[in-house]
Design goal:
The protein is of the alpha+beta class. The chain contains 3 helices and 8 strands, in the order ββββαβαβαββ.
Length: 98
């Protein structure tokens, strides 16, 4: 499984945008909600499972989309099931570590 990521330094914190690679470039719509999983936001590079694990553990701000990404995050204790929301059946989660 590959993940598509983009990292940014934001106010001395590592910000990680990560999604399941097959979602890159998709537009998810449900009623009036619209989520564009764009290359400019999520598509800096593709990483494998182990690098994704490391990034999820080390990032302070994380925007994530996709079943595999969310599953890995929850397995690591990054975020909670109650924080996961869905648009068009696609899960997403935003985490701020304090």
């Amino acid at each position: 499984m590959q993940f598509s990521i983009k990292t940014t330094d934001y106010q001395k914190n590592l910000m990680l945008n990560i999604c399941d690679a097959e979602l890159l470039g998709k537009n998810i719509v449900e009623n009036e909600l619209n989520m564009n999983i764009s290359e400019s936001y999520y598509g800096e590079k593709l990483v494998e499972h182990e690098e994704a694990r490391t990034l999820l553990k080390n990032a302070s701000i994380i925007n994530m989309v996709g079943k595999e990404t969310i599953s890995l995050s929850l397995e690591l204790g990054v975020g909670t099931e109650s924080g996961v929301k869905k648009i068009g059946g696609v899960p997403f989660l935003i985490v701020f570590k304090m």
